[in-house]
Amino acid sequence: MPLHLEVITPERSVYEDDVDMVIAPGSEGYLGILPHHAPLFTTLGPGEFRVKKGGVEEVLAVFGGFMDVRANRVVVLTDAAEHIEDIDASRAQEARDRAQQLLAAGPVSAADEARARAALQRALVRLRIAEGRRRRR
Ligand code: ATP
Questions:
Q1: Among 13, 15, 49, 64, which is most exposed with the fewest C-beta within 10 angstroms?
Q2: Which residue, among 27, 123, 20, 118, has the nearest Cα to 74 in the 3D structure?
Q3: CA-nearest residue, atom 13 of ligand 1
Q4: Same domain, 99 and 56
């Protein structure tokens, strides 16, 4: 009995398939989910979301959100997600620099500040993952 996994962002469905196992970055630590897992609802931290299927592992970067597990179905709702191989480090550097400049430039509205802080956090997570990926090669 496989697990059916869906990873959804406000923009698109990033992943949908039957898989053997997932390892998710729960906000309080990594959680391994196998078929027949007990029902679970948790928030996710930013980090690496590992998907195992047929002896192959794929790794997605996710940026917070929620994971709902029940009846062999795993649904992940997250602000953004991408395969770690698709992370463009220079784009993340530019996003980081833009957010830092905006935050350093002085008073902005609370909403703009929150957006810039969230973008900065996404960029830093992408850069950390891109760096780890480079070292593993
Ligand atoms: P940017 O300012 O570079 O767009 P962002 O943090 O605002 O970065 P998001 O809103 O998190 O971007 O994501 C928008 C889309 O672009 C998503 O589909 C996300 O997966 C993708 N994406 C964003 N940054 C990168 C990156 N550095 N490498 C690969 N994909 C990215």
A1: 13
A2: 20
A3: 80
A4: no
Residue range 17-49, pLDDT digits in tens: 999 999 999 999 999 999 999 999 999 999 999
pLDDT tops 90 at residue 9: yes
Q: Whose CA is nearest to atom 8 of ligand 1?
A: 95
Structural domains of the chain, count: 2
Domain that holds residue 123: 88-136
Structure confidence at residue 82 (pLDDT): 95
What is d(CA 95, CA 60) in angstroms, rounded to the nearest whole number? 19
Same domain, 67 and 98: no
Question: Whose CA is closest to 59, among 47, 68, 48?
Answer: 48
List, chain by chain if needed, residues with CB within 6 Å of any ligand 1 atom: 11, 80, 82, 86-88, 91-92, 95, 119, 122, 126
Q: Is the pTM higher than 0.90?
A: yes
* Same-domain check for residues 41 and 99: no
